[in-house]
Design a protein that fits this description.
Layout (H helix, E strand, L loop, with lengths): L1 H22 L5 H26 L1 H6 L1 H22 L5 H22 L3
Helix pairs in contact: 2-4
């Protein structure tokens, strides 16, 4: 039951991300993304610091793909979401963001033959 409650919070946070991005539409998208990621870093640092130290050798071994995935999957994605909110409604952005998992499955089956 606990995991279902956490999943509900995930949905609320994702929806809140789009709504807050639309509410802060006066700021540039990079600024909104920076402060969102900075707040997440400050919040998660005490929780995951010890575990990150234990995983440091693994990170150093695979830092290039992890860095690319971090930049494209986290930083660019949020920046593009906030930039798109300047041109369309939050509803349209939410619908397009909802399509991403389905599109990922389709593209992975076509491109990677999985």
């Amino acid at each position: 039951m606990y995991s279902y409650i956490l999943l509900i919070f995930v949905v609320i946070f994702y929806a809140g991300n789009i709504l807050m991005g639309k509410a802060m539409n006066d700021l540039p998208p990079f600024t909104i993304a920076f402060f969102r990621l900075f707040a997440a870093f400050i919040f998660l640092l005490p929780i995951g610091y010890r575990r990150a130290l234990k995983a440091k050798p693994v990170f150093l071994k695979h830092y290039k793909p992890l860095l690319v995935m971090t930049i494209t999957g986290v930083a660019f994605f949020n920046t593009f979401i906030y930039a798109s909110l300047q041109f369309t409604s939050a509803t349209n952005v939410a619908v397009l963001e909802t399509i991403i998992p389905v599109l990922t499955v389709i593209l992975s089956s076509v491109v990677l033959k999985e």
